Amino acid sequence: MVSYISASYxxxxxxxxxxxxxxxxxxxxxIVEVLTPEEAGAKGELNVKRYEGLIVPGFVNTHCHxxxxxxxxxxxxxxxxxxxxxxxxxxxxxxxxxxDSAMLRADHEMFSCGIVAVGDISNQIAxxxxxxxxxxxxxxxxxxxxxxxxxxxxxxxxxxxLKDDFAPLPASLTPHAPYSVSAPLFEALKNIAEEENxxxxxxxxxxxxxxxxxxxxxxxxxxxxxxxxxxxxFFEPSAKTSLQTYLPQLSSQRPTxxxxxxxxxxxxxxxxxxxxxxxxxxxxxxxxxxxxxRLPDVPMLxxxxxxxxxxxxxxxxxxxxxxxxxxxxxxxxxxxxxxxxLTWGTLNGAEYLGLDSRFGSLEVGKRPGxxxxxxxxxxxxxxxxDFSRRLY
Length: 392
Known about the structure:
- It is a single chain.
- By secondary structure, the protein is an alpha/beta fold.
- Helices cover about 35% and strands about 20% of the residues.
- It has two domains: about 5-55 and about 365-390, Urease, subunit C, domain 1; about 60-350, Metal-dependent hydrolases (TIM Barrel, Alpha-Beta Barrel), CATH 3.20.20.
- Strands 3-2-7-16-17 form a five-stranded mixed beta sheet.
- The radius of gyration is 21 Å and the shape is globular.
- The model has no long low-confidence stretch (mean pLDDT about 95).
């Protein structure tokens, strides 16, 4: 039996919004029809449930740390990234029940906020049980960390073993960040990404300290290495930004997500586009404000043609796990059309995760989830107001 729903506007994402459009869905939420009001009228008397607002596909969160869900409110805001990383490492040991409960709540929160798929970072096996029982699709990025070139084999093998432990859930190995991965470990990760045809994710230029470290071997990361007891005498600065130093070490053959990009320059984007044709740029604005109290140069990324996705980061660095909340922060700080924000939060993320045959747009045959948003329209422009609820 087909159920029909309509709203002030239907946003299919793959095309312009349809005023008073109608979507037909079967019992499991698979789309069987997307109709203009004229097409719906031509079908005769349909039992259509009408909503005030925008009907849009389910959201895709391309960057999350579910296993840090127990740290909500534990780390002060505006510490800067080196201090934030140190505090995460100091606090991440938790009682198993406390952590499991926090992850279950976070998973439920994301589902209730209309998220249908998540790219999740993991450094331990703790999140597997939550993911196996979730109504959300998860792709787990098992991070490899090891800045000392002499220990790269042990770092790689540990990450590989953890990835195997997540089976049968989708998982792949990925580098954590340029300041925590050695050249030989980058090479090993590049090789396995190409062998297994997997996607790659990396934290990119989240702080000014990151660029300063690679350019001059100065900045806050020196204190972090000292506190961790890491001898980095071997490291020689490249006199280049972080991105321009490490990007050539990644596979240009695999879809790659650069996460945060808070201190990415126009020159970095030009370099990136010249050296990698399958890049996606993930924005986590609420986490950027939480940690560094700064946002990326979003207009520059848009002008440069960057394919943008959205992420929430973790509850250690955010007050909520809501892609709509990330959209609202961007809308409040930049002049970004609602259609672009919705594309970033749906189809671009689904495409990066390789899930666009199911998620990301309102198309016949897909089961993308259905969200209802409130809005206002002024001078022909739509402005998002609130997440009303998840319909399917």
